[in-house]
Design goal:
About 45% of the residues lie in helices and about 15% in strands. By secondary structure, it is of the alpha/beta class.
Amino acid sequence: MLDAFAQSVAVLTTLLTVAGIGYFCAALVAAYVFLRSRRAALAAFSPGVSILKSLKGLDPGMIEAFRTDCRQVYAGKYELLFGVSALDDPAVAAVEQLMDEFPQRRIRLIECPDRLGTNGKVSTLAQLAPHARYDFLLINDSDISVSPVI
């Protein structure tokens, strides 16, 4: 009786070992197929992007950072939306200068006079979002510079 039990255990463990090796081989094949499919060229994806910038006052290097947004090379379309709480903000002159320097770029200055909550920047961004032409929104500060190639 002990021999029958030992033989049953040996057969069971052998079957489990073979099943484990089979699973391991299947996982290796699946990993190979997955990695090979990832190496295939991806379709170009360059959606339109609306870049939102909430402004208040002038920051050092702000206009040069804005210029980098205008000089970037992007396969899709993009626009720059600048929001200020009042049109007498000193940042308005910087945006108008940018519009004069880059007339080929879609740049808009939008007054956002409402105070929606306690955070002024978030309030301005919330008022800018409905003006966005594109579904993809990118939010960055006035001191952010970008490289020419994205």
